[in-house]
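Exercise 7b. Backbone tokens:
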């Protein structure tokens, strides 16, 4: 498809709208000085996106042609509007959405909302004093969202209130990155290394990680900020030997004041890394929440996506985790995995609901450039993922689970979302804090991003890969000093 711009250059946003309808197509772009230059129509599908500025108003128009059929939408916008440029971009996106919806018969349920955190928009509207009906009207008319997505977004926002309201004012979370996995899943784009390839590197990585934890604690312990949650992610933290995992957790306990923790999560995402020894290490060192993630209960699908474990191993690991007595166990599932079917996904959902874990997270498959998964993405893939998500949503609502955090990714099948579901009162605190960007996150380890929140955001990035992290460790510590100075100043300003 060719996008032709006249009187504007809103390439990024308008291309994002087109991808809602044509997720696998490539796009070409033409920029014209004025509308009169559009005498020669391009071959194939195209959209002509035009802004003509007058004295007081601008005329916005979109003409789209798909398979030889055309549709046009127009709108005027006052030129003295606040944030005029962004408003024009937003309105043109909406006009393009309407044209393409007419021509394709599709209606992406999130409307023109392409951001990662849709609940933040809903909370912004709630905080402005609008009622549910007023919010619903705004989201329907301005963002073209469907009732179903508005409903689940609003309910998620309400369920987050308890978690956010219980957050200490001067607090932070600690994220510990363990960027190793037994094997690399075909869909994965996370910065992680296989244990077999980096086994020799792991002892040095653990040494440096513990050193960074100690160094960071010495810097932030003077800030009078309270440690609220700890989250071990990656990668798969339980890829480590039990002794290494214990060493890291003990370093956290020795260096930070953990008396006021509301939550301590360790991802044991791969069932083939779970042992009784590791589960006891986690529990004995303060961990009270754990993730054991099958993604699917069908062995043929697991083999297709490169997960070197079986469904039977998941059930064994899950039952083992439950015997330990954690406050919460989370289970991740993915809708739209290659070779999976609607009936197969239903069976997976029902099997997990029968286990009654405290948390269930449903992901729509996101196909990333950095992943090893090479799919020929068809419309049927998107439609299948959409139907899977709808089924899971209905069943989880119907069995007493509540949505408590929600986020979206680029290139998700069916333009769907990821939703964390919880039994009442057991939602993962860290997940809400990081998704809604309401709390400072101090991150240690390769690929970790420290985010200082003080009216705005200030980010500090650790090197992505373990070897890079080790080689540039002095830089890692220097960035921690900078982040700590900002945290201390934020604390002083809030005294």
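Sequence design result:
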């Amino acid at each position: 498809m060719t996008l032709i711009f006249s009187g504007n250059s809103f390439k990024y946003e308008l291309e994002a709208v087109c991808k809602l309808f044509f997720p696998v197509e490539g796009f070409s772009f033409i920029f014209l000085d004025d509308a009169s230059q559009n005498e020669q129509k391009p071959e194939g599908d195209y959209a002509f996106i035009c802004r003509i500025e007058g004295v007081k108003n601008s005329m916005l128009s979109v003409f789209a042609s798909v398979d030889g059929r055309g549709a046009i939408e127009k709108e005027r916008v006052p030129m003295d509007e606040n944030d005029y440029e962004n408003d024009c971009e937003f309105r043109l996106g909406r006009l393009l959405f309407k044209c393409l919806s007419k021509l394709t018969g599709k209606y992406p349920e999130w409307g023109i909302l392409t951001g990662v955190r849709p609940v933040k928009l809903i909370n912004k509207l709630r905080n402005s004093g609008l009622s549910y009906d007023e919010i619903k009207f705004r989201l329907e008319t301005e963002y073209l969202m469907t009732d179903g997505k508005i409903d689940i977004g609003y309910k998620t926002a309400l369920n987050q209130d308890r978690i956010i309201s219980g957050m200490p004012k001067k607090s932070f979370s600690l994220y510990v990155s363990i960027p190793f996995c037994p094997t690399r899943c075909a869909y994965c784009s996370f910065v992680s290394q296989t244990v077999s390839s980096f086994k020799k590197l792991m002892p040095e990585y653990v040494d440096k990680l513990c050193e960074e934890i100690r160094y960071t604690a010495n810097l932030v312990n003077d800030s009078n900020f309270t440690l609220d949650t700890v989250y071990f992610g990656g990668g798969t933290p339980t890829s480590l030997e039990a002794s290494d995992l214990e060493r890291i957790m003990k370093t956290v306990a020795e260096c930070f004041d953990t008396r006021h923790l509301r939550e301590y999560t360790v991802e044991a995402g791969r069932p083939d890394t779970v042992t009784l020894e590791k589960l006891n290490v986690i529990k004995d060192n303060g961990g009270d929440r754990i993730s054991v993630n099958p993604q699917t209960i069908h062995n043929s699908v697991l083999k297709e996506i490169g997960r070197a474990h079986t469904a039977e191993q998941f059930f064994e690991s899950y039952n083992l985790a439950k015997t330990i007595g954690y406050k919460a166990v989370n289970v991740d599932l993915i809708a739209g995995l290659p070779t999976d079917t609607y009936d197969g996904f239903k069976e997976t959902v029902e099997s997990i609901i029968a286990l009654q874990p405290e948390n269930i997270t449903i992901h729509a498959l996101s196909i990333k450039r950095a992943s090893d998964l090479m799919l020929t993405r068809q419309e049927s893939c998107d439609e299948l993922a959409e139907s899977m998500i709808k089924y899971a949503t209905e069943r989880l609502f119907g069995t007493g689970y509540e949505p408590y955090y929600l986020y979206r990714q680029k290139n998700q099948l069916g333009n769907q979302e990821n939703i964390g579901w919880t039994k009442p009162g057991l939602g993962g605190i860290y997940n809400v804090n990081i998704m809604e960007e309401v709390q400072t996150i101090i991150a240690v380890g390769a690929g970790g991003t420290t985010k200082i929140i003080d009216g705005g955001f200030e980010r500090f990035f650790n090197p992505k890969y373990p070897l890079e992290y080790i080689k540039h460790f002095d830089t890692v510590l220097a960035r921690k000093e900078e982040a700590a100075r900002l945290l201390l100043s934020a604390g002083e300003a809030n005294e």
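Instructor comment: Residues 451 and 459 are 5 Å apart (CA to CA). Residues 84-104 form the longest helix (21 residues).
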